[in-house]
Input
Amino acid sequence: MLCESLSFTHICTNCQETFLRPSIYKRKILNNIEVISFYKYNDIKDLLHTKHTDIGYYIYSILANYSLKEFAKNFEYPERVSSIAIDDNIRNGYSHTAILNKALKSKNIKPEFNKLRAKNPVSYSGKSREFRLMNPRNFTFKHNTDRDIILVDDIITTGSTLSQAINTILKSNSSPLFCLTLADASIK
Output
């Protein structure tokens, strides 16, 4: 897909090693919660835009394995935590945030699904901060353990979606530890 070489995967191993090596980018949002991202949005935006296509499942799986899966292998915490994807509804045959969340499965992280859903299915893609503030996602949260939580999403732009999710989680007396995203759109 990138170099047009024959490969049995959608992105050949050489291109994965060359172009998909993650870096760590951090920023803080609501209540001083840290957001850890692995790529600059502009570096992988064409790959991220595949999420609404059939090939997106494979691309998101590759990105998740290179970033979130590796993060989970090295994550240490005194007790097991839950990872919860932002609005992991199935669209186009799969949920791109569920793919990311599944990659976090490890001895210290238990991915949970269908826990944080938006009642307002509005898309924030390409929308302004004002639009995002005027059209909240109105999350519902169904969590039945007392584990600390890692929130998972694909992109952070303004931080509005993650902030709304954090507020919803805090109202249920659960504790978000931090957030993980594939890409941060604020990094140039």
Summary: The chain has a mean pLDDT of 90. The two ends are 25 Å apart (CA to CA). The longest strand covers residues 176-184. The CA atoms of residues 66 and 84 lie 19 Å apart.
